[in-house]
């Protein structure tokens, strides 16, 4: 019996949910004009599921039929998962129906590789094209691009999409070869490279006599890798991430902690990766991108190549570099303020703004940072000196929150 | 801030104005002041409430007087209806909608916005997209292995749940999450479905190359798969040479740069542009010569968010000589021009003094060799006059190569 729309949706949303990204941010702001839909720039989370993740886009696969056999993926050809395929028109209608009810910011469309990379990519492009040209849809569109698809299809995808992404899947080529033997690291890197070049070409001011695409993925490109399905260390992952950012000007590299899917394959760890590991990796990634840390500096927070799960990477770094503290809140540079555990970019900027109006004491600082507990051992104010606290061998224990059971109860 | 429901909002505003008028002109810029901070907190609460209205309104489709109308009931925390409506006008310009709140209503009909007095909460409208498809999507996209109820609650307070149909399934999702994860973990690998084998065979068939392959293309494929040194891992791709199969003149550079790495073609970046200009000035048609590099992968180091060229080591140059020699054997040039010291090293295996030996044609195995500078050297010269003079010498070297070939 053919599946109805609801059944297809259940199969193809389930298959798409392992993609971490649901962001609808970035890119050009625009209003409905003669069509329907807008992009605000910030992006909106229209709901949160009980996993704490934001639902911003309708995130589905066009089909979960797949000719590849990537071990970590529930849609791999050797999996017994239920299969379905949307018609192009069905995705278009579903997107518009949910959009009109203000449930979503737009569409995030990915797909299993049915037949070939080019066939699949051209189906994905057809959906975006129909939404934009036939229905005047001006909401957000994120398209997954398929490694190995032709350059012409990538270019067309960039014309209709706000964001493009192509997953690198694994931190190293060796891991990719082992777990996704039919995927080519070369094709993936070439795809990311081509998209970067197209985005940069479209962003350049037009010059006489040069051909320039009118619009190409104004919200940039992103990628994702699975964490914990192979033996890569956190250092391997961060090194790969740093390189990806620099090579392909990515908006984001998403990490997806390996979790069971109900369709296990041999050759994979039988335990899920701790979600905390994913969180620590994001924190380290943030230090690298927004806090002025280099990967070499972070090595101190990476004994045996792994981040400490019990404390955040900045605290781990500070505990190794106690000689850099205490930092004088009233005189330190922004760079130094950002090295203090418990002071983020926003707090650092507020401290700098506030100290123009007078000397900051603990009371004022508390208002700026929220809590003093983590900050205090590392700073100096006119009414506070950490003294021997900074040398305390048990400082880590004092700062680590007591382990507590994650609460499942809600009233 | 005026939209905030706190009863002291006007008193606070008055106090702020008073203090500002009495000389504390930059009061609002001081995040450590308690009045300023409270004002900011009120303003942020209003902003957040506006955002939540934009996020959590759910329009149900209904028919009214024969026309399609999208209607909703929403209970904002503050008096933000007028503040929040422009968003809906901008987004849902081509449909008629109605937002009813305890403070009043906003309606967009026939492209006209009207505000009305508060109305009683209307009965729930059945909408099978909201109640069926949307709720099913919400349920399905939840991953039970990542249960974090507190994170959801912090973002989506229960205040709004009553008007969001999908939230009815939260209780069940949370309750069953543990069991679903236990069941998933207990799963053991199953035998693959029948079609898996068929697909695997078809995949294998596709990968077999068809037809006769040009020798240069065959070599290119080998280079693309090269793992002789570790440079392949961080780079995007090997950059193979470019030009006609049999060329009299062959140019060898150092290694691909950032642009070449992205495009997969030699000499297309800034140095490539200098090279192209110099070729043109020397009267050489680039499409008639063969252009390649001593090292085929881009070697770089990270500087902040950029990739910066890093000089290949002698070992890397030596490993890559294998490919260069095979390229030469296929192209069979009369003369090879080495652009810079690394190119000369790659060709000869020896370090040459480029500035001393440049411009001279010397025998090299059965071929001839001319050494000159790398075009990127011309880009690095800070002095404009020196750069122009050096560029002139570079063009002269290229002309010498061209005339030697023609002779």
From TrEMBL, chain A:
InterPro entries in UniProt: Aldolase_TIM, DNA_rSAM_put, Elp3/MiaA/NifB-like_rSAM, Endo/Exo/Phosphatase_dom_1, rSAM, rSAM_sf, RuvA_2-like
Tell me the keywords, alphabetical order.
Iron, Iron-sulfur, Metal-binding, S-adenosyl-L-methionine
Q: Signal peptide location in the record? A: none
Q: Where is this region: Disordered?
A: 200-223
NCBIfam families according to UniProt = rSAM_link_UDG
Any one GO MF term held by the record is:
iron-sulfur cluster binding
- Domain Elp3/MiaA/NifB-like radical SAM core: residue ranges: 56-286
Q: What is this protein called?
A: DNA modification/repair radical SAM protein
Origin species, per record, is Chelativorans petroleitrophicus
């Amino acid at each position: 019996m053919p599946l109805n729309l609801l059944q297809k949706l259940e199969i193809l949303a389930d298959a798409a949910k392992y993609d971490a990204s649901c962001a609808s941010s970035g890119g050009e702001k625009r209003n409905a004009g003669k069509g329907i839909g807008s992009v605000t720039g910030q992006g909106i989370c229209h709901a949160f599921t009980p996993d704490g993740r934001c639902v911003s886009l309708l995130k589905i696969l066009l089909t979960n039929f797949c000719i590849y056999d990537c071990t970590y993926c529930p849609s791999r050809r050797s999996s017994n998962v239920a299969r379905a395929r949307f018609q192009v028109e069905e995705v278009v209608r579903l997107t518009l129906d949910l959009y009109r009810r203000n449930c979503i910011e737009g569409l995030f469309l990915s797909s299993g590789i049915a037949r070939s990379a080019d066939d699949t990519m051209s189906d994905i492009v057809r959906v975006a094209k129909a939404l934009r040209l036939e229905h005047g849809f001006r909401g957000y569109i994120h398209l997954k691009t398929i490694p190995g698809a032709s350059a012409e299809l990538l270019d067309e995808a960039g014309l209709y999409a706000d964001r493009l992404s192509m997953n690198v899947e694994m931190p190293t080529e060796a891991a990719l070869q082992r777990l996704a033997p039919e995927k080519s690291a070369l094709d993936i890197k070439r795809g990311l490279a081509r998209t970067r070049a197209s985005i940069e070409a479209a962003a350049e001011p037009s010059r006489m006599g040069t051909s320039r695409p009118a619009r190409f993925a104004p919200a940039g490109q992103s990628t994702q890798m699975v964490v914990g399905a192979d033996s890569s260390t956190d250092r391997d992952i961060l090194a790969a991430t740093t390189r990806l950012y620099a090579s392909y000007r990515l908006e984001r590299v998403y990490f997806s902690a390996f979790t069971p899917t109900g369709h296990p394959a041999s050759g994979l760890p039988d335990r899920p990766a701790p979600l905390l590991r994913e969180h620590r990796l994001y924190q380290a990634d943030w230090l690298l991108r927004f806090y002025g840390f280099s990967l070499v500096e972070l090595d101190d927070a990476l004994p045996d190549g792994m981040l400490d799960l019990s404390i955040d990477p900045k605290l781990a770094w500070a505990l190794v570099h106690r000689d850099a503290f205490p930092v004088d809140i009233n005189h330190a540079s922004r760079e130094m303020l950002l090295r203090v555990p418990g002071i983020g970019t926003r707090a650092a900027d507020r401290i700098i703004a506030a100290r123009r109006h007078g000397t900051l004491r603990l009371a004022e600082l508390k208002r700026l940072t929220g809590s003093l507990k983590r900050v205090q051992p590392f700073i100096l104010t006119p009414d506070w000196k950490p003294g021997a606290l900074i040398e305390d061998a048990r400082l880590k224990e004092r700062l680590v929150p007591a382990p507590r059971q994650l609460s499942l109860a809600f009233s | 801030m005026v939209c905030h429901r706190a009863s002291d909002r006007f008193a606070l505003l008055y106090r702020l104005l008073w203090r500002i008028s009495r000389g504390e002109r930059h009061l609002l810029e001081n995040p450590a002041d308690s009045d300023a901070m409270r004002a900011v907190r009120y303003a942020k609460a209003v902003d957040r409430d506006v955002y939540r209205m934009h996020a959590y309104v759910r329009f149900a489709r209904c028919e009214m007087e024969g026309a399609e109308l999208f209607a909703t009931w929403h209970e904002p925390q503050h008096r933000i209806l007028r503040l929040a409506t422009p968003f809906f006008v901008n987004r849902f310009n081509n449909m008629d909608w109605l937002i009813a709140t305890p403070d009043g209503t906003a309606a967009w009909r026939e492209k006209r916005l009207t505000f009305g007095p508060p109305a009683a909460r209307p009965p729930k409208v059945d909408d099978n997209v909201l109640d069926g498809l949307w709720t099913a999507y919400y349920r399905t996209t939840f991953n039970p292995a990542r249960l974090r109820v507190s994170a959801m609650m912090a973002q989506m307070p229960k205040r709004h749940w009553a008007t969001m149909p999908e939230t009815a399934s939260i209780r069940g999702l949370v309750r069953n999450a543990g069991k679903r994860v236990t069941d998933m973990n207990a799963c053991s690998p199953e035998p693959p479905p029948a079609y898996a084998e068929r697909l695997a065979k078809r995949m294998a068939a596709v990968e077999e190359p068809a037809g006769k392959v040009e020798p240069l293309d065959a070599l290119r494929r080998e280079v693309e798969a090269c793992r002789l040194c570790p440079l392949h891992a961080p780079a995007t791709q090997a950059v193979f040479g470019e030009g006609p199969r049999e060329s009299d003149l062959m140019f060898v550079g150092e290694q691909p740069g950032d642009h070449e790495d992205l495009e997969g073609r030699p000499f297309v970046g800034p140095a490539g542009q200098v090279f192209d200009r110099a070729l043109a000035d020397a009267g050489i048609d680039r499409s008639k010569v063969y252009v390649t590099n001593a090292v085929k992968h881009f070697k770089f180091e990270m500087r902040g968010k950029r990739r910066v060229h890093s000089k290949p080591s002698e070992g890397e140059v030596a490993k890559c000589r294998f490919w260069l020699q095979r390229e030469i054997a296929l192209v069979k040039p009369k003369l090879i021009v080495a652009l810079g010291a690394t190119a000369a090293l790659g060709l000869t295996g020896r370090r040459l003094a480029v500035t001393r030996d440049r411009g001279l044609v010397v025998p090299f195995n059965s071929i001839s060799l001319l050494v000159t500078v790398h075009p990127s050297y011309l880009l690095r010269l800070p002095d404009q006059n020196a750069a122009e003079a050096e560029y002139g010498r570079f063009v002269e070297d290229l002309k010498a190569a061209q005339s030697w070939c023609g002779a």
